[in-house]
Design a protein that fits this description.
The structure is a homodimer.
Chain A (H helix, E strand, L loop, with lengths): L1 E6 L4 E10 L2 E11 L6 H19 L3 E5 L7 H20 L4 E4 L1 H8 L7 H11 L8 H23 L1
Parallel strand pairs in A: 1-4, 4-5
Antiparallel strand pairs in A: 1-2, 2-3
Amino acid sequence: MRILGLDPSLSSTGWGIIEVESNKMKYVADGFIKTDPKMPIADRLAIIHRTLNEVIETYHPDEAAIEQVFLNDNPTSTIKLGMARGVVILAPALYAIPVTEYEPNKIKKAVVGVGKAAKEQVETMVKILLPGCKPKNNDSSDALAMAIAHFNYRGARNLKM
Amino acid sequence: MRILGLDPSLSSTGWGIIEVESNKMKYVADGFIKTDPKMPIADRLAIIHRTLNEVIETYHPDEAAIEQVFLNDNPTSTIKLGMARGVVILAPALYAIPVTEYEPNKIKKAVVGVGKAAKEQVETMVKILLPGCKPKNNDSSDALAMAIAHFNYRGARNLKM
């Protein structure tokens, strides 16, 4: 079973894939999709869409996880983040891959053990939990953290059933 | 030359197509994409994406026009609108159809003659400017208004060049 973690943003969307085998996690791949702020937004969205389709066709994830949105005070930033988020969530949906949303502090709690953790702590724990993994940047590290959180909560949910 | 007007929203995205021949406008088609609020957002976005792809493959528009976003005071509404908007703008981008954004009052000015016009006035003028057209609902009427506005400003822009 493979999990795709996604960290959407118009300028740099992070993605990360982990594999789960007999309740153990293994690093598969990670990356980020940078788009040029000078390009029309429509073209930037098309780049995000096409790259995520490639990631899905290459690694065949079964489930996807995404952070619940960070609501910005600036409505223009919020709408831009919304646009990227819509296109990012669309990719797994088109492949019938279920997407689960998690609150940011739930993701940190799952990865670091506490809800309020610095970015660096998250990255350190991602490296410890996924031996051999050197996240490409902060965005892909966050995306891997989402995949790890999904693995944890998914297990908890399964236990409850 | 065909113009696609788009009025994005997660619950009901309007679309409308007009044809331009020797500087005259003709109605081609219009419609709206309703999605069930009880469905996961990812699936609603996939419906919008697939339907717009079908519209583009059926009517082969050359250019697209969209309203500049209405910024809501409610960040949750803004992010939802942003998600729909991202997926709506993506569709023409994937077919290399250029998308132009217009401010709401510019669209009203182009269609009704004044920047502050009621929805009903817009619909009445859409019917007058596109003889034989009976817009399916308010959303598709707004989308047709965007296509009309694009026709007008496009002409003005061309004259300036």
